[in-house]
Amino acid sequence: MMMKQADVSKVRREIISHVGSRVKIKANRGRNKMDITEGIITETYPSIFLIKIEDGSSDTVKTMSFSYADVLTKDVQMMLC
């Protein structure tokens, strides 16, 4: 099944409208591995968006990137906190 450009654009617009919001991310990393974490949507680009994740136990900040297609295909699920 081909992804429609309109569908990806709809996901992109929705994420852009929530820049600066805290989200809970559930990412499918393959072979039955799921990463669940919380972060803040910091930046958006034409193909990807960035989420800043702060580790509460230390002062480290990690940035993860995801594509809009990952959200559309449900490899990444996002929920507002």
Class from helix and strand fractions = alpha+beta
What is the name of the CATH class? Mainly Beta
* Integer tally of domains: 1
Shape: globular
Q: CATH topology, anyone?
A: SH3 type barrels
In terms of per-residue confidence, which ranges show pLDDT below 50 for 5 or more consecutive residues? Answer: none
Put simply, the count of helices is 2
CATH architectural name? Roll
Mean pLDDT: 88
Give a quick account of the main beta sheet: strands, pairing sense, barrel closure: 5 strands, antiparallel
Task: Please give the order of strands in the largest beta sheet.
Answer: 4-3-2-1-5
Helical residue percent? 10-25%
Give the total of beta strands: 5
Q: What gyration radius follows from the Cα positions, in whole Å?
A: 13 Å
Beta fraction:
over 45%
Topology order in helix (H) and strand (E) letters: HEEEEHE
